[in-house]
Amino acid sequence: MQDEKLIPLSALQHYAFCPRQCALIHNEQVWAENWLTAQGKVLHQRVDRGEPETRKGIRYERGVLVSAEWLGITGKLDLVEIELSTGNMKPVEYKRGKPKRDSWDRIQLCAQGLCLEEMQGRPVRSGALWYWQVRHRDDVEFTEQLRDETRSVIAGVRDLLTSGHTPKAAYEKKCDSCSLYDLCNPKLSGNDLSAGYVDALFDEENRQ
Length: 208
Fold this sequence. Notes:
This protein is an alpha/beta fold. The protein folds into 2 domains: 161 residues, Alpha-Beta Complex (Lambda Exonuclease, Chain A), CATH 3.90.320.10; 41 residues, no CATH class. 44% of the residues lie in helices and 22% in strands. Strands 1, 2, 3, 4, 5, 6 and 7 form a 7-stranded mixed β-sheet that branches. The longest helix is centred in the C-terminal third of the chain and has 20 residues. The chain starts with 6 loop residues before the first strand and ends with a helix. The C terminus is likely disordered. GO terms for molecular function: exonuclease activity; iron-sulfur cluster binding; metal ion binding. Its cofactor is [4Fe-4S] cluster; iron-sulfur cluster; Mg(2+); Mn(2+). Keywords: Antiviral defense, Exonuclease, Hydrolase, Iron, Iron-sulfur, Manganese, Metal-binding, Nuclease. InterPro entries: Cas4_exonuclease, CRISPR-assoc_prot_Cas4, Dna2/Cas4_DUF83, PDDEXK-like_dom_sf.
C-alpha cells in the first residue's frame, strides 16, 4: 500500500455510516456543520489540548498521530493509554453522542488499534469509546470479527476513493442526523425519477 495515498481514519467511520456521505466528503470535498458536528469538534479540541500525564501506572498520551502503511490508513487518536508495567496500549475515542447499535464507532476504534499494532509491532487487544452525552465509557474488544469488518471497510473506502464515484442517495432514519442532509437531499434524490423519465422518452422516440 506504500504507493497509494493513505486513507484518513475518519473516512472509515463516514463510510460505515453511509458510503454516500464518505464520497461527498472525501471525493467531492463537500462539508457542512450542524450542531452535532460542532459539539463534536469542541469535544475533540478539548481532548487534544490536554497534556500527557501519568496516573496509577497508566501513561495518557493525547492527540497521537498514527499511520499504518501496510493497511493504508492514517489519522490522529484522541487518547492512547499505555500500561507502564506491560507496555500494553489502548486507544480511546471520544464521541459526542451515545452508544450506537451499529458498528460505525467500533470500526473506527479498531482501525486505530490496527495502526498502533503496525507501528509498535505488538498486539492491541482492545480500546474504549467515551460518550459525552451519557458520560459513559464502553470497552471494545478487537475480536477477529471486528478486525475483519474493519479491513473490509478499509477496502471499501479505498475502492470508493479510487473510483471517484458517489453512490446514489437512499433515505434512512439516520439521515436526519447527518450534517450533509440538505446538500445530499436523500428524500428527493432517492426518489428522483427524472433519469428514467428521460430514458422512456428516448425509447418512445426510437419506437416511432
